[in-house]
Amino acid sequence: MTWNIQPDRPVYLQLIEQLELALVIGEYPPGTRMPAVRELAAQAGVNPNTMQRALQELESRSLVLTQRTAGRTVTQDAGMLAQLRGKMAQTQVNDFWESMKKLGLSAQEIVELIRRQAEEE
């Protein structure tokens, strides 16, 4: 996993967002064991306590489950992951839409830009 930690926002929030993305795209597939806290912290270049805090938040959202003998595993609830994916996508669309409106583009111009981009893909 590639980590991108910026100095302008709380680190643990960035860790949560990046871990959620990793879960949604299947970098850590449903039901699989997550790497240990220290391993993830070393990869991200953060304090293990900060990584622990991020993982505890994912646990409180039931995205990651802790089993004393097996460590942390990714939820097997595909519906929950799909819902998170949809929420993340909607946030991206909202941010994009607002940015385009700030540029002075109309709804029709924005839709046309998206259509052209999709055709190029």
Automatic annotation (TrEMBL):
Name the source's superkingdom.
Bacteria
Any one Pfam family here would be GntR
* Keywords assigned: DNA-binding, Transcription, Transcription regulation
Domain (HTH gntR-type) spans 9-77
TM ranges: none
Q: Which InterPro entries match?
A: Tscrpt_reg_HTH_GntR, WH-like_DNA-bd_sf, WH_DNA-bd_sf
Protein name per Swiss-Prot or TrEMBL: GntR family transcriptional regulator
- Please give the organism: Ruthenibacterium intestinale
